[in-house]
Design brief:
alpha/beta; 268 residues; single chain; Rossmann fold; 8 strands
């Protein structure tokens, strides 16, 4: 069974989606130095992405944000990435920010490729040749893992922060209504996807995360087929304060990974 078909099964449960997606609209222009792209994903529907360009010649991270967030929330966070020498592009989902349509898991998977290719094209238009890493925070791990599997030869490294290997496990943990859904099938296919990912990977997770338990990060770490991978626990960090609690350790690990993604030995 394919992940896309199982995601579509979830998407046909409106009550479940109301628990899993919290879209928020935002129409304000980007701050100085940033740029908004509207990327067509189907007829009449475009998804927004905000690019925060810092110093030329530095690597980029394409970040798929968490639930309840929008790309514009990173207006104040992007300078922290610039400080460690990373340019940042943050993608919204359907219904979030300036994006049209309604959010769904199937569209997250399908739109991720269009977003990735649009960002690559934009960098090529600017005659920029920096590396483009992919990152998923929380809900965004769905999109990031799909891209890591699909574009393995092009993506130099994968970062997952506060994420999960399968949304099925999150549904069970939260005790959400899921009668009739083949969550076991989804878990199996997502595990297979992770096993097929062999690019360098950095997983960052708060040890006190009550929304997505730390055990999810451990399972994802074990399941990834990558030999160059690292699991970084942040003691005392919850789901939404991990950046603040992690501080220098959080950003230091990210900077080191982007500089040399292959240096993480198995088990490090």
């Amino acid at each position: 069974m394919e992940r896309g078909s199982i995601y579509r099964e979830i998407d046909h449960h409106p009550l479940l989606l109301r628990f899993l997606f919290y879209p928020r609209r935002w129409e304000q222009p980007p701050p100085p130095g940033a740029e908004d792209l509207l990327i067509p994903v189907e007829e009449g529907v475009a998804v927004g992405c905000r690019l925060y360009e810092g110093e030329a010649g530095r690597a980029w991270i394409l970040l798929f944000h968490g639930n309840g967030e929008i790309a514009a929330d990173y207006d104040e966070i992007a300078p922290l990435y610039h400080r460690i020498g990373i340019n940042l592009a943050v993608a919204d989902y359907r219904g979030y920010g300036k994006s049209g349509g309604r959010p769904s898991f199937a569209s997250m998977v399908e739109d991720a490729a269009a977003i990735y290719e649009a960002i690559r094209d934009r960098l090529e238009e600017r005659k920029r040749e920096e590396k483009l890493f992919v990152m998923g925070r929380s809900l965004g791990s769905v999109s990031a893992l799909e891209l890591a599997a699909r574009y393995a030869e092009m993506i130099p490294g994968l970062i997952i922060e506060s994420g999960f290997i399968s949304v099925g496990k999150l549904i069970r943990h939260l005790g959400l209504p899921a009668a009739g859904l083949d969550l076991a099938g989804l878990d199996k296919e997502c595990g297979r996807l992770a096993a097929g990912i062999r690019i360098p990977a950095l997983i960052i997770h708060g040890e006190a995360d009550s929304l997505v338990p730390y055990a999810q990060a451990e399972e994802l770490y074990r399941s990834l087929g990558s030999t160059a991978k690292r699991l970084l626990p942040i003691p005392g960090a919850e789901h939404n304060d991990i950046m603040l609690v992690g501080g220098e350790r959080y950003f230091g690990a990210m900077a080191g990974f982007v500089e040399a993604p292959g240096r993480f030995a198995a088990g490090a």
